[in-house]
Amino acid sequence: MIKIGMMIGDRYEILEKIGTGGMSDVYKAKCHKLNRFVAVKVLKQEFSENENFVSKFRIEAQAAAGLMHPNIVNVYDVGEENGIYYIVMELVEGITLKKYIEKKARLSYKEAVSIAIQVSMGIEAAHNNHIIHRDIKPQNIIISKDGKVKVTDFGIAKAATSNTITSNVMGSVHYTSPEQARGGYSDEKSDIYSLGITMFEMLTGRVPFNGETTVAIAIKHIQEEMPSPKEFVPEIPASVVSILLKCCQKSPDRRYQNVPELLADLKQSLMNPDEDFVVRNDPDTEGNTRMVSDREMTQIKRRTYYQEAQEEEEESMRLRTDAEPAYEEEEIGDYGDEEYAEDYDEGYNPRMERVTTLLAVVAGVVICVIVIILAVRIFANVESGVDDELPNPIITDGSVSGTGEAQYKKMPKVQGKNVEEARNALAELGIKSEVNYVESDTVEVGVVISASAIEGQDVAVGATVTITASAGPKGVEVPQVVGKPFEEAKRMMEEQGLEVTREEAHSDTVEKDLVAAQVPEQGSKVPKGTNVTLTVSLGKEQSKVYVPNLVNKTEMDGTVEATEAGLQVSVIAHEFNAEYGEGYIFYQSYSQGSYVDPGTVIEIKVSKGAEAKTYKCNVNITAPTPEEAPDYVSGTPVQLKLVTDDGNVLLDTTASSFPQPANYYGLSAAGGTLTMSYTVTIQGPPTTDENGNQVAGATTTEPRSFNRRVEFTEE
Questions:
Q1: Which residues of 696-713 are buried (b: 16+ CB within 10 A; e: fewer)?
Q2: Is 568 within 8 Å of 562 (Cβ atoms)?
Q3: What is the mean pLDDT of residues 614-634?
Q4: What is the model's pLDDT at position 159?
Q5: What distance in Å separates the CA atoms of residue 50 and residue 53, rounded to the nearest whole number?
Q6: pTM of the model
Q7: Among 93, 330, 410, 598, which lies 20 to 30 A Cα-Cα from 544?
Q8: pLDDT tens profile 692-701
Q9: Are 612 and 601 in contact (CB under 8 A)?
Q10: Is 646 annotated in the active site?
């Protein structure tokens, strides 16, 4: 068991618990070898001896360790020590996208698209490594303190091969794709659907499908038409709406087929938000229909049911009986090849038949579980003499897989403890817990009233105990005050017996001095005296925006960067520029590092590349001047060689008289160099011959040369 202060792997000191999931707990730790803080994900003890769970945990580690990307929480280390399986990850300081949305009520389309772009880049990196996340949701997206968006928790991701993955419904039902809800195939397009739902929540502050049960929500994903976000926020641009709706098509073939396609449209929407450029996929015309053989269909169905049974055993969430294998075989038989083929020929939808049958199976299992629980309750109450109104103990009679005393723990006393203490006490025993809050005039808020297992009762490890806790005195309904003046909103809250705390924040959508958000939200039932936080709008934020460097970036990249910074871009010219390549920005009206008002228009110029120019040479070459050649004698032959700047020889001749004409056309260089070479005669000193007579000295010749710059003119 993990304890605060213990060392793992001789280097990671556990400091505090910072999160928990279905299979693992997450701790903040210090790596003493590299002197840095890290996050350590540890497989829960109750699962560490289960081969299936350990296998899933290792798959997660192997998959995540292969991902290195700025928009993914990086994995540093993987290990096992004394039965403790752990993954060491990057510790990201920030908040989840879920909390960020709750804080701001909803995001502007620019901010939502910018976040979606970063999430998409992280997902793209995973897909390139054949990894499907399968649980994309705001809770699994972290915004760091420096604004970097990172995807985390590949807890239910699996390394995909070239084949798709058959799975049960996994992940959070509010964000799950129709194929995941059906227990069907999941691939890259399932992540795209979940990202679309996440975008919907960012833009509207709510999820598109909701319901009282997870089954009800899953059915809505499968059957109900996706609502347009414009129904809730009319000002969302058309391009963003089209992108979102394409992501959330029921049929995977109608969605974006890969993340790069999605990224291209997201970036385009920042430049042209009101243009509907999204291409709709029509599998009926595009020929994307894939025929599945009868043999393949049988294998798919059998694999789906086997996987459902395996998940039930791993999670210890359902009672199993000796009759269960026969039940599964019977259901598989109902999906026989001949019967399926007949239904298909009669015009029925095989996919909906599968959904209907699956729901019927689920309903049957639920009824069986209820009957068993009621029987156990009656038996327990009779044997123990406990009054019928006492909570139902969770007793197993050997129907839970595994035998022996090690599979059971004594139920501790939780009544009178606060919820956190009670849940921690159960977690230490390997018992899961759920909390149900009820109104109470006698028990303090957050204190446990009762539990579904009696103190001292044998409870199966991995089973779930329902804790009933106090929600305080009979509550009142929180009124809707968003959009109202603060004083009016405060009066309405106080009339309900609620206290009010005022906070202020800038808002791009709510006018100044009006309530922009409320916590708890409208319709919530809370005890009298509850403090309600009202966030009052300060209007649009007028703080200055830092101007990034756009020069030497492509027009699209520069526009995206400026838009993300809260600026607008206007292309004022496309001009030839030899220094910058075609399509690259070479001028911006506000220099990098300056600060301007939000929404300021940055004017840019985009290069058309170097302009193709031609030049002509029309010069008369004059004789060397005394300054150029002090020892030159008029009439001496001079070698003339004219070479252009790009290496072409225009003239190579000898002249004794000047000027010499030089006329050339269609040149690609703007100038050249003229080299003039000549020889000079040098008289040696006089000498004395053998007769003592003085004679003239011998003569020698020496070469001389100099260069002239010749400028050409444009044709």
A1: eeeeeeeebeeebebebe
A2: yes
A3: 93
A4: 37
A5: 5
A6: 0.43
A7: 93
A8: 888 887 888 8
A9: no
A10: no
